[in-house]
Amino acid sequence: RAVVEAVHRLDLILGNKAAYQEVFKPENISLRNKLRELCVKLMFLHPVDYGRKAEELLWRKVYYEVIQLIKTNKKAGTDSALSPLQHIHSRSTLECAYRTHLVAGIGFYQHLLLYIQSHYQLELQGCIDWTHVTDPLIGCKKPVSASEKEMEWAQMACHRCLVYLGDLARYQNELAGVDTELLAERFYYQALSVAPQIGMPFNQLGTLAGSKYYNVEATYCYLRCIQSEVSFEGAFGNLKRLYDKAAKMYHQLKKCETRRLSPSKKRGKDIKRLLVSFMYLQSLLQPKSR
């Protein structure tokens, strides 16, 4: 009941027209912290019945929806063609609060990741480098009294913590003066190590890659996501968008006049033509089932 009530109050705040000015008020930060505590308590008391739901609520209501609100609410008069975060003035109170929100999220999920490993005595040393280390002086560990389903939830919860950590690092990377691209990449690949059958981290890696190498890297990631045992629905739309871009770029290249260029410029042009043509060919070879 307390979780539902907290969610309802947060929804009312987010529904306000001036929500992006309200979300970082002390009372609203306190409300999100309270919801976070309740969700963590719920997931450890009833991991099988409510663990997954509590995780989702915690991520969406405490972190993700605040991030989306800041990214989508532009200041009046801001050009819509600008970056979603350019309406945040550098060193402003809002920017400082937003940066703190992301850093706090990373700290929380690192702590949760360690706590789940410790609580369920998970051995993830071969998968990730952020592991719970048992003190050898303590001696034999007390056997964990958890069912198979609880252990399964714990393993997948670690996987999802790593995805969330990757997302938070990716959002940090969008801010001026922050370079956390490699950190985000590391978290996504570790999520794949914990649960290789889940394709979602590949989708996130595609988003992280952006338009590198004329979208070839992102296309590879989206294809890997789609081909995974458990694919992510959003990857199909992301891939289609890149193929549409490739077709547009290919036809634009064909229209361009062939001018005499210096060897270095000609090399760059040839590489672009090769990669764009390769992408366009990929789009033509894709089955049209979606």
UniProtKB/TrEMBL annotation:
Signal peptide, first to last residue: none
One GO CC term, this protein: telomerase holoenzyme complex
Any Pfam family the entry gives: EST1_DNA_bind
Record bears the keyword Ligase: no
Domain DNA/RNA-binding: 184-283
GO biological process: nuclear-transcribed mRNA catabolic process, nonsense-mediated decay
A GO term for molecular function: telomerase RNA binding
InterPro entries from the UniProt entry: DNA/RNA-bd_Est1-type (IPR018834), Est1-like_N (IPR019458), Est1/Ebs1-like (IPR045153), TPR-like_helical_dom_sf (IPR011990)
UniProt keyword annotations, A-Z: Nonsense-mediated mRNA decay
Residue ranges of every copy of the Telomerase activating protein Est1-like N-terminal domain listed in the record: 53-175
Highest taxon of source: Eukaryota
Protein name listed in UniProt: Protein SMG5
